[in-house]
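step 4 of 6: structure.
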Amino acid sequence: MSNAYLSPILQDAQFNDDGTFLVGGLIWFYEAGTSTPLLAYTTPVADTAWTNPIQLDARGETGGEIWLKSGSSYKMILEGPPQYGQTHGVVVSTFDNITGVNDPGTTSVQNWISFSGTPTYLNGTSFYVVGDQRTTFLTGRRLKMNNSVGTTYYGTVVISSYALGSTTIVVSPDYGQSVDPTINALSYGFIETGTVSSIPVAVQAGSAASGTARTMWMDYNISSTQLLWAYDTATLSNFWPISVNTAVAAASNSFSTQQTASQGILTARRTGVADVSLYNDANTWGVIEQTVGIGIQYDRTTSKFSYGGFTLPSPATSKYIKLPNGLIIQFGQGTASSAGTSVTFATAFPTVCASVVTNAIVNPAVATSVNTLTTTGFTAYCGSTNPVSYIAFGY
Amino acid sequence: MRYSASKKGFYASDIDYKSVPEDCVEITEDDYLLLIDGQSSGNEIVPDPDKPGYPKLIPVT
């Protein structure tokens, strides 16, 4: 991109009314619509400014090229030669709102191309236009529609078909919108779709600050309307599976989402490490470690947090619960006897078992007691051999 | 799951232990569940004299 663009006017010789050269004439440069001087340049890189004004030579020419600064709009005034001692001459012509030729700073590309025909409403997702317009309304092309009160709404062409002199266009309206019964004007996106599209098939993921820029691909399953994954074409292993409206994916190193009518679940998985899920439904949200079933949950109906196991897997891995503050609760069953029977905890307490409570399960008439309490278990006593259940607290 | 015969205890992998006994051996999750379930139904978990370092179930008399 250049700094300056060629002026479309006043590049050639200028003349007096009688056809002779306008020798000594002046060209003044101002900001458009004002009398604020604005420099013009002799080169496209805008490194050398013209004098303001330029005084025309013996051939009525500037003796060079006039380049206008990019993004600027000029007013140019052509004057005759000034009288002795005067700055300005008689104004010959005034040109306002002049910009450099093809200056991208002052020209804009229109997103939408107005369709010359008139659309006729069919239903909330379709309309028709006269003639065979299938090459315009390509599948996937964006549409901008107006109704009789000037409301604008948008959609995407699903398919267009031609029969009996008119083209029926089925539209997928943008979320929350539909084809209006009073549709009366139509524009389509300037980007074509399909094999003739100017959209690159691969989208470059920017230029890497360090390392190598990579090309990302995305796979979309049309039949199931699922975005499957995005992946790096250079190292096909670096892909990010995305699974929507399906059961949690089984792949390692994945993120997956699950959506039901009332519940959304985001699960992160890493090889060798259990799933961690973030979930919410109508009344609760929480984060849960899937294998042990421990997590934290918030109930918005009571505005209270709770933690613990919410979906305890079965059977024995559920017999200890880690709380976030380090406390471990264990429970299970063993046997008590008169000579004492060892009961082994489901897992050892890292530091100490603070307390164990036992109770005979079947026999209501017997008392049980605990001895030899260690981090890994205890000895259960009873006057007779009885099954016992226990609860143990520790950390 | 790990088992230590000297401490007569299990050491789960998802609990943070500053250290575990040196004689810890790895046992499968299935074996672990069998042992825990066996303890719930009238057995005792004790070190196995025939397979040193590993646990076994013996009925409580």
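step 5 of 6: annotate
 - The two ends of chain A are 69 Å apart (CA to CA).
 - Chain A touches chain B at residues 274, 291-292, 315-317, 319-320, 322, 328, 332-335, 337, 341-348, 350, 374-377, 385, 387 (CB under 8 Å).
step 6 of 6: archive
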